[in-house]
C-alpha cells in the first residue's frame, strides 16, 4: 500500500499555488482595449523574437486605415487569447497523458500481455486524472463557446453570417460540422465514453482483487470492455483531435492529424508510466518490478517516439512537397513565427530518445530512463503548445512566459496530487489476474 | 597436447543446460555445443561474451546515412542544381525533406546488409562451405557437447555420464 508522502503533497500544492498565481497574472496582464494591446506589442518589440517585427512590417505596408484598425483588433484578440491558450495547453497535455495511459491499459488487456500486469495499478492511478482533466477541458470548451475567449475563432457567429463584413465563406461550408451545439455534444460523448471505460475497469479490477481464486468473471468483463473501448477510442480520439485541436486552425485540414495526436499522447502516457514506476520502485514499493519491466517501457518510449516522428514528418513532408497554398500556410506560419520551438521540439522528441534509448543496457538504468522521459515530456509539451498556440495567439506567442510556465506548473501539481492520491487508495499489486505470475517472473 | 575430444550427446535441452553448468563448475573447458535449435540462455550458461553485432549495425547505419547525404548533396545541389518543379535546390537543408526518404532507406539498407555480411564472415558461412557437423543427429533432435580430453579419459566419461548424457564418444578432432 502506498502512502502519499506529505513532502510530495506539499510539493504538489506548492506547484498548484505558484501555477495559479502565474495563470492569474497572465489574465490580469492581458489587454482589454486596443490601446493597451498596441502598447504591449510596442514593448515586446525591442529585441524579442522576429515574429512580432515581421507582423508589424506587414501592418506598416498597408496604410489603409480600415485595415490597420482590423489588424489592431486582431492583435488584441491574440493577446487576450494568450493566457487562455496557455491554460488550454496545460489542460490538454495532462488530460492526454491520462488518456494515452488509458489506451495503453486497454491494449495490455486485449493483447493479454504477460509482462505488464504488475504495472496495472500504476496505470489505473494515472488514469484517475482523466475524470478531472476531461471535465476541466469540457469546462474550457463551454467557456470558449460562451465567447469568453477567441481560441476557437470559428465560434464567432459573425464569421458564418452572410450579411456580416467578416463573413467567411470557407467556414460557412463547414458549418454542418463546426457549430457550437454539435461540438459540445460530440465532446461530451467522447468524454463520457472514456470515463465510462475508466470507471468500469477500475471497478472490475477491484472486484477481481476480492474475487475467489480462479474466478475469472471480472477478468473476462474487463477484456470485453477493453476491446469495445479500443474501437470507440480510435474513432473518438480522431474526432477529438479535429475538434479540440485542428479546428483552432479552422481553414486547414490534414488527414493523419488524429494519428499524430495519438502518437504524442501515447508516448507521453508510456513515459509517465515509466517515471512513476521508477519513483515508486525507488521508494521500495514495487519490489516485484524488475529492470526488464523498465526495459520494456523504455522500448515503448523509444518506439513510439520514432512513430511520432514518422507521423510528424509524413504530415510535414507531404504538405511541404506538394506546396498547395491552402495547406502549406499551416507550416509557413510555424516556420515564420515559431521556428525555434518548432525545430527544437522535433529534436527533443526524435533525436534525443533515439540516441539515448537505443542501447539495450541504458534502457535498464532508471536514471537514464528518467532523463530521457523528462526530455520527451517537455518536448511533447512544446508539441501541444505548437498545436494550439499558432492558431490562437499567432505572432504574439511567448513560450517562456509567466502564464505558460504557470499553467504547466498548475496542472502538473494537480496531476501529481490526483494521481498519487489515487495510488494510495488501493494496493499497488493487482490480484487474481491469470498472468500475474508470468508478469512477476518476467525477464527479458 | 592430445587432439582427442569427447562428444557427449544429450536428448533434452533442460538436461543439456544443467550439464553445461556442472561441466563448467568442474572446470572443464567446453569446446563447442551443437544444438538443433536455439536454446534460450545457453550462451549465458556457457559464459560466452556478448555479441557486438548491434554496434557494427549502428555504425553501418551511420555510413549509409552519410553516403546518402553526400550523394544527394553532390548530385542535386553541387553538380547540377536544376529547378525541378520549383524545389529549392539552393542548399542541402532547403531541400532536405525531399531527401529524407532516401536517407532513411539507405541507412536501413547499409545497416541491414552489412550487418548480415558481417555475421556471415564472423561465423564463416558461405555457399559450398563444408558442414562442420560432427553428428548429423544434432540438426534433428540431439544436443552435442564437445570437450577436449585432458587427464583421465575414464574419469571424464563417468563424470559426463552422471550429467545425463545418453551417449559418449571419444574421437580424434578433425
What's the structural blueprint in terms of helices and strands?
The complex is a heterodimer of chains A (444) and B (174).
Chain A: H1 6-28, H2 34-45, H3 50-60, H4 65-110, H5 120-127, H6 129-145, H7 169-173, H8 180-210, H9 217-244, H10 257-282, H11 291-322, H12 325-337, H13 339-356, H14 366-392, H15 402-423, H16 436-440
Helix pairs in contact in A: 1-15, 2-4, 4-5, 4-6, 4-9, 4-10, 4-14, 4-15, 5-15, 6-8, 8-9, 9-10, 10-11, 10-14, 11-13, 11-14, 13-14
Chain B: E1 4-10, H1 13-25, E2 32-34, H2 42-46, H3 53-79, H4 96-122, E3 143-148, H5 153-162, E4 167-172
Antiparallel strand pairs in B: 1-3, 1-4, 2-3
Explain what the structure shows.
The complex is a heterodimer of chains A (444) and B (174). In chain A, helix 2 crosses helix 4 (65-110). The two termini of chain A are 27 Å apart. Chain A has helices at residues 6-28, 34-45, 50-60, 65-110, 120-127, 129-145, 169-173, 180-210, 217-244, 257-282, 291-322, 325-337, 339-356, 366-392, 402-423, 436-440. The radius of gyration of chain A is 23 Å and the shape is globular. Residues 46-63 of chain A have low confidence and may be disordered. With 444 residues, chain A is mainly alpha-helical. Chain A is built from 16 helices and no strands. By secondary structure, chain B is of the alpha+beta class. In chain B, 47% of the residues lie in helices and 13% in strands. Chain B is built from 5 helices and 4 strands. Chain B has helices spanning 13-25, 42-46, 53-79, 96-122, 153-162, and strands at residues 4-10, 32-34, 143-148, 167-172. Chain B has a 4-stranded antiparallel β-sheet. In chain B, helix 3 (53-79) packs antiparallel against helix 4. The mean pLDDT of chain B is 92. At the A-B interface, helix 11 of A face helix 4 of B.
Amino acid at each position: 500500500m502506498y502512502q502519499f508522502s506529505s513532502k510530495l503533497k506539499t510539493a504538489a500544492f506548492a506547484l498548484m499555488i505558484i501555477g495559479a498565481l502565474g495563470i492569474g497574472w497572465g489574465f490580469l496582464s492581458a489587454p482589454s482595449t486596443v490601446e493597451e494591446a498596441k502598447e504591449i506589442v510596442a514593448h515586446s518589440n525591442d529585441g524579442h523574437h522576429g515574429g512580432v517585427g515581421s507582423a508589424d512590417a506587414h501592418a506598416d505596408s498597408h496604410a489603409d486605415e480600415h485595415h490597420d484598425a482590423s489588424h489592431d483588433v486582431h492583435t488584441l484578440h491574440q493577446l487576450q487569447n494568450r493566457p487562455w491558450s496557455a491554460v488550454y495547453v496545460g489542460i490538454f497535455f495532462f488530460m492526454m497523458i491520462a488518456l494515452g495511459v488509458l489506451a495503453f491499459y486497454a491494449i495490455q488487456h486485449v493483447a493479454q500481455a504477460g509482462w505488464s500486469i504488475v504495472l496495472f495499478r500504476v496505470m489505473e492511478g494515472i488514469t484517475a486524472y482523466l475524470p478531472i482533466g476531461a471535465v476541466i477541458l469540457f469546462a474550457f470548451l463551454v467557456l470558449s463557446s460562451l465567447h469568453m475567449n477567441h481560441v476557437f475563432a470559428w465560434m464567432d457567429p459573425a464569421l458564418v453570417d452572410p450579411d456580416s463584413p467578416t463573413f467567411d465563406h470557407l467556414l460557412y461550408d463547414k458549418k454542418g460540422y463546426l457549430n457550437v451545439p454539435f461540438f459540445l455534444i460530440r465532446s461530451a460523448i467522447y468524454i463520457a465514453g472514456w470515463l465510462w471505460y475508466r470507471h468500469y475497469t477500475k471497478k472490475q479490477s477491484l472486484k477481481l482483487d476480492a474475487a475467489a481464486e480462479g474466478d475469472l468473471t471480472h477478468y473476462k468483463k474487463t477484456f470485453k470492455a477493453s476491446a469495445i473501448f479500443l474501437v470507440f477510442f480510435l474513432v473518438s480520439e480522431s474526432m477529438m483531435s479535429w475538434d479540440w485541436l485542428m479546428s483552432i486552425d479552422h481553414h486547414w485540414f490534414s488527414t493523419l492529424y488524429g494519428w499524430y495526436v495519438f502518437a504524442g499522447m501515447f508516448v507521453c502516457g508510456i513515459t509517465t508510466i515509466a517515471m512513476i514506476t521508477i519513483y515508486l520502485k525507488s521508494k521500495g514499493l514495487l519490489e516485484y518490478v524488475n529492470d526488464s519491466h523498465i526495459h520494456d517501457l523504455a522500448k515503448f518510449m523509444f518506439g513510439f517516439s520514432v512513430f511520432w516522428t514518422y507521423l510528424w514528418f509524413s504530415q510535414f513532408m507531404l504538405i511541404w512537397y506538394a506546396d498547395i497554398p491552402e495547406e502549406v500556410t499551416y507550416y509557413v506560419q510555424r516556420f515564420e513565427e515559431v521556428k525555434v520551438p518548432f525545430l527544437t521540439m522535433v529534436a527533443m522528441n526524435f533525436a534525443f530518445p533515439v540516441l539515448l534509448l537505443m542501447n539495450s543496457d541504458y534502457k535498464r538504468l532508471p536514471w537514464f530512463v528518467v532523463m530521457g522521459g523528462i526530455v520527451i515530456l517537455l518536448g511533447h509539451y512544446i508539441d501541444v503548445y505548437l498545436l494550439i498556440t499558432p492558431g490562437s495567439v499567432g505572432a504574439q506567442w511567448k513560450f517562456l512566459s509567466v502564464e505558460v510556465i504557470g499553467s504547466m506548473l498548475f496542472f502538473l501539481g494537480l496531476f501529481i496530487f490526483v494521481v498519487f492520491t489515487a495510488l494510495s487508495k488501493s494496493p499497488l499489486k493487482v490480484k487474481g489476474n491469470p498472468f500475474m505470475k508470468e508478469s512477476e517472473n518476467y525477464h527479458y | 597436447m592430445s587432439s582427442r575430444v569427447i562428444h557427449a550427446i544429450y536428448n533434452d535441452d533442460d538436461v543439456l543446460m544443467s550439464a553445461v553448468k556442472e561441466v563448467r563448475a568442474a572446470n572443464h573447458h567446453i569446446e563447442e555445443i551443437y544444438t538443433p535449435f536455439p536454446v534460450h540462455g545457453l550462451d549465458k550458461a556457457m559464459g560466452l561474451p556478448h555479441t557486438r553485432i548491434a554496434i557494427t549495425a549502428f555504425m553501418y547505419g551511420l555510413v549509409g546515412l552519410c553516403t546518402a547525404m553526400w550523394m544527394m548533396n553532390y548530385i542535386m545541389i553541387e553538380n547540377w542544381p536544376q529547378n525541378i518543379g520549383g524545389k529549392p535546390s539552393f542548399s542541402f537543408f532547403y531541400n532536405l525533406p525531399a531527401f529524407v526518404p532516401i536517407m532513411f532507406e539507405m541507412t536501413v539498407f547499409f545497416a541491414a546488409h552489412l550487418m548480415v555480411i558481417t555475421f556471415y564472415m564472423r561465423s564463416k558461412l558461405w555457399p559450398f562451405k563444408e558442414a562442420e557437423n560432427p553428428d548429423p543427429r544434432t540438426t534433428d533432435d540431439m544436443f552435442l557437447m564437445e570437450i577436449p580430453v585432458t587427464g583421465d579419459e575414464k574419469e571424464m566419461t563417468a563424470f559426463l555420464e552422471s550429467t545425463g548424457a545418453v551417449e559418449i564418444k571419444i574421437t580424434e578432432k578433425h
